[in-house]
Amino acid sequence: MYIGKQAVVIGAGIGGLAAARSLVGRFEKIVVLERDILPEAVEPRAGIPQGRHPHVILPGGMESLSQLWEGFTETLRAAGAKESDFGSQTYYHFPGQQALPFRKLGIRFFKCTRPLIENTVRNLVKKEQDVIILDGHRVTEIVPTQDGNAVRAVCCETRDGKEEIYEAELVIDASNRGELTLEFLRSTGRSTPEETVIGVNLNYATAVLEFEERDTPEFHAMLAMPNAPESSRMGLILAREDNYMFAALGGRSGDAPPIDWPDYLDFARSLVTDSLYKILATGKPRGKIVQYGFTENRRRHFERCANWPRGLVPLGDTICRFNPVYGQGMTAAVKEAVMLRDLLKSRQHDAQPLTDLFEALMAEANPMLDNIWALSAIPDLAYPDARGERPANLQEALEFNVAVHRAAFLDADVHTLLFQVIALLKPGAALQDEAVAERIKRLAAEFQATHNGAER
Ligand SMILES: Cc1cc2nc3c(=O)[nH]c(=O)nc-3n(C[C@H](O)[C@H](O)[C@H](O)COP(=O)(O)OP(=O)(O)OC[C@H]3O[C@@H](n4cnc5c(N)ncnc54)[C@H](O)[C@@H]3O)c2cc1C
Q1: Ligand 1: nearest atom to the Cα of 331
Q2: Which of 45, 175, 298 to mutate to test the pocket of ligand 1 (most atoms within 8 A of CB)?
Q3: Residue 141 in 3-state DSSP?
Q4: DSSP bridge partners of 155
Q5: What is the best residue among 9, 14, 163, 184 to mutate for testing ligand 1's pocket, by most ligand atoms within 8 Å of CB?
Q6: For residue 285, what is the enclosing H or E element?
Q7: How far apart are CA 401 and CA 373, in angstroms?
């Protein structure tokens, strides 16, 4: 049974597409409005500048996408994504210890470019009869009802300068920046939401590498985490669906990775391990090295706004954007879409299914966002110049993180649990369980006694 005639989704990024799917069967028509002209080919586009950089869809995100589309993993694999176990084919270097040993952890991990993920999802959405994606449509305003208590329509401008208006009982703002929602709140006399921010001033530089056949790495991913707080330098090599690999280097504040190849290599040499440098040195960059500046993790507490308008649902980065180093943003957006789908299903026979819908969504999404926020906040706040409120137990939490990394080196169960947490399959609290935490501390002490810790 439909609960409404028409819903509009703003943005055909990952959150918008997943949300469109979650509305199928609940609205007679779902219109997705996207400002970009969407390419047929698998290639980056202007509206997703981050799409030129490595983008992993974490196993937790794959799980949610599979809840939206049965067989999604097979579809992404068939599209070319490379698959391995999260614990093998993946070198994880934490400071002061060797890379975690390859182990089969039973967690499937897919690697491909962001454009491939998006194209795959978009092609699935295009098959939905009730969904229409209109590209080249830039939304300019979310229009309120006369009394300001609800959404009524969405205005947009087409590429040829025409203005169009789409009536809507539900509007999903998945535009990433969320300015349209903020403007709606202001124009209807509401206050904009409080924000929690962690300023990280991260600079990214990404190269696409090609290798001679004999030098082509056999692994799928290599990650060198920074030695905080002494250094913020980190690096990543990641497989793609084609014959190339991504390399990404990162540093904070003034310590930006260079975009000139010899200097880029030098920067890579200064990471916690020289393994990454050695691989990069056998490759050759294709085209230019591209940069990205990421200033802050930002969480908008929309749920604290009084008198929330009926039918307005911000989603994805509009609500919360995370430090991209941990690869969590797409997963958070897709998890929210699954929650929205389930909520709409549970309300389909209600007299007023859209009343307090967003409040109900946030009540479900907030524990998930709290978890992700905490996972990235602790390492992000390790740097004295990171802006943001520090938890009272920050030092203890940082020391516990180091203990987990040491314990994961020695113990397959801790390794599995840590990677389930990183993959967003289990909450970080699973590592805090009393018996687990005791075991981690014991193993970390054993590591300390038996390893000198150093690695290059
Ligand atoms: C450098 C970098 C690396 C990242 N790496 C990862 C990673 O490895 N893994 C991961 O999960 N996440 C990663 N992220 C985060 C991820 O990109 C975002 O969390 C995710 O894309 C958010 O989805 P979204 O739908 O909210 O927004 P987006 O996917 O950004 O989509 C927003 C869409 O809205 C459109 N739009 C904007 N304004 C309008 C308008 N007025 N009218 C119509 N359309 C509009 C845009 O063109 C775009 O298509 C990374 C981010 C960055 C910056």
Answers
A1: 11
A2: 175
A3: strand
A4: 141, 165
A5: 14
A6: strand 283-301
A7: 15
Distance (Å, whole) CA 324 – CA 14? 15
- Looking from the CA of 317 toward its CB, the CA atoms found within 13 Å total 22
* 367/158 Cα distance (integer angstroms): 38
Per the omega criterion (within 30 degrees of 0), is the bond before 391 cis?
no
The pairing of strands 170-173 and 4-10 is parallel
DSSP secondary structure code for residue 304 in this structure: G
Q: What does residue 9 show for φ and ψ, rounded to 5 degrees?
A: -110, 125
Residue 302 CA, ligand 1 centroid: distance in Å: 19
User: Residue for token digits 């991504």?
Assistant: 246
Q: What is the pLDDT of residues 306-364, one digit of tens each?
A: 999 999 999 999 999 999 999 999 999 999 999 999 999 999 999 999 999 999 999 99
**pTM listed for this prediction:** 0.97
Residue 365 CB-half CA count within 13 A:
31
Q: What confidence tens digit (pLDDT) does each residue in 372-402 have?
A: 999 988 899 999 999 999 999 999 999 999 9
Strands 27-33 and 4-10: parallel
CB 331 within 8 A of CB 387: no
Best residue among 120, 322, 330 to mutate for probing ligand 1's pocket (most ligand atoms within 8 Å of CB) is 330
216 CA → ligand 1 middle, Å: 30
Q: Give 239's DSSP letter.
A: E
Per the document, the length of the chain is: 456
| Residue 324 three-state SS | helix
